[in-house]
Every structure is written in structure tokens, then in C-alpha cells.
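Quick start: what a row looks like.
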Amino acid sequence: MLGACGVHALRKGDAAEARHLLERSIAADASNPVTFLNLASSLRALKDAEGEVKALDQALALEPRFFPALIQKASLLETQGDSKRAARLYQRALNALPPGASLPQGWKPLVEYAQRAVFKSLHELDQWLNTRMQEVRQQHAAVPQNRVDDCLGAILGKNRIYVQQPTYSHFPRLPAIQFYQREDFPWLATVEQATDDIRQELWGLLADAREEFSPYLQHASSDPLNQWKELNQSKRWSALFLFKDGKRNDTIAARCPKTVAALEAAPVVRIPNRGPTSFFSLLEPRTRIPPHTGTTNIRLTVHIPLIVPPQCGFRVGTQTRQWQPGTALIFDDTIEHEAWNDSDEERLILIFDIWNPLLTRAEQELMTVATAAIAEFYGD
């Protein structure tokens, strides 16, 4: 009752009476963070900054993620000229909001103001870092700095840190490398040198076996499709397999002997009923493959670009690359990735899987047996 009367007095503009009533309410029951927040508001009106901070800290001691109290404390710091600490507290307030939650209408301007304050502060921090780091960056200009950039980008709110998110099996303690360095794969040159032959064999398939391309996504209508709804059962993203889940497509493979021979140079995954998998991937004009992750990090994925019109792109984690015909990309597909063809022509690439080179030979052999045994157990 005293708390309600205090709020009523505050709304009437009688901050002194509100303070008196709210302090009496707290003396009777000090368990409600809202009462401390209301007391802080009365103290704000009375210009008692010290008392306001104390009341807000008491509210936050009861409920550390209490959004209105965090916002009010941040705004108090801002009025006191401490914009940097205020911004960090605004960020804490935003972090306290449950993702996707329906918020009270009155909170919307508070959220937007907090977002602007955080953005402004991070922009100032970005400029500060650029100045402070300029000399040391120049000293190390000859070596990659992308991991530093990703780390700082996450701090500055420019990007997120992408981790491996396999949809099936996660092999522990393998680093989350987005694109692998070409120098780590001495066999790669052999495959790339066959690009013209591979493309020629692909042209033959496009000429008289185009109907063999089938939708890459073939989920049942009863499956939860989420981001795949638009492309499911659609030839906008289609594939023609040379090998699928370890089984050779004899008709197609026989027509692509130079492609099959080139793939023999690669350490492809060979697991009964699971690998190798290699196929031509066709992405129709004005088509985008939404962000997604693959099934397991014991393997990597290789792209050999064959027919790539302008306005095509590919992102893995924080890094975006343009396909260059004949230049392979090797990446961990358990890190979120997406692709797009914004042109008016078809994009075609050769895709195949290889062992993750950071697995030992023993680990490869053990995972081969284990993966095949799991498939056999479930009858897959």
C-alpha cells in the first residue's frame, strides 16, 4: 500500500512525499526491486545522485538483470559525464533482455536509446584502437591479421565469433578454421590443373544429361524445414553426383573419367555408406543458399569453381570469398556458411569432401569404423 501511494505521489510530481512513502515501504519489506527503482526515480527528481545510485544498486542486488534499473543507472552515469561507463552499462542492460521476448511498449524507446549509446561508444573505441594499433600493425603487415580482426570485431559489435556447429557429430579439440590455407594441401595443384578437363566433361553433361540434375534438398514435407522451405525439392539448387554416400554413380562417373581421376589425388573420406561424396552443384540465377552448417567436422569441404558469373559469392563465418574458376576453396562446413548467385546466369562448381587434416591416421580409421557402425546399427 505504501509503495503504491509512493508511486502515486511520484506521478503527481511530489518527489519528496514519494521518497518518504517509498522509504517507509522498504522499511516494511525490502524484497521488491521495483520499490527501490521507484525510490531511485524520486531521488532523481530531488537531484540526490548519491542516494539514487544507492537505491539502484539495491534494486540490482535483488535482481542483477533488472532492465529498467540498469537503464536508469546508465543514464545517471551519462548525466555525470561518464559516457564510457554508461555505454558499458547500457550494453549490460541490452544483454539482459531475453532474445525474441515480447517487451513492454514503454521499453522500446529505452532499448533504442541504449543501442545508439552503445553504437556511438563502440565507434569511438574503434577509432581509438586504430590509432593505438597502427604502428604494431605496420610492423606485422606481412603476416595475416584476420584472427585479430575477428576478435576485435566481436568486441566492437561488427561481427560474431563463429564456432563449429555440426548437426550430427562434433569431434572435440579441432580448431574452428573458416577457410584453410592452400599451402596445407600439396595435392591441391593436381586437382586444380584438371579444371579445364573437368569443365569440359561438365559441359557434355549439361548438353545431354541436364535432366539428371536433381534438387539438392529432398526433405519430406513432414520434416521441419526452417530456412530450407524455399529450396526444398527445388532445382534452383541442384546436384549431379559422381559419388554419393560412398556409392559411385556409374553412368555419370563413366562420362567424367578425367574428373574422377583428378579426385583420386585428394584424401577423400572413404566410409561405407557415407563417403566419398562428390558432385556438380548448380545454383540458378537469382538464388541464395541460406546460412547453414554441415553434419561433422571430421571432414572438410572443397569447392572447385568451374562456371562462375559475376555477382556470385560465398561466406564462411566472418569471411566472404568470390569463386575464381580453377582456384579451390577449402573450408569447414560446420561453421555457418551461405552462398548466392545474384547474376542472370547459372553458377556451377565441383564439390567434394576430404578428411580434416588435423585428425591423425588412427583417428581417421577409428572414426571410419565408428561412423559405419552407427549407420549399420540404425539401418541407414
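That is the whole record. Residues 2-97+110-120 form a domain with the Serine Threonine Protein Phosphatase 5, Tetratricopeptide repeat fold (CATH 1.25.40.10). The chain has two domains: 2-97+110-120, 182-378.
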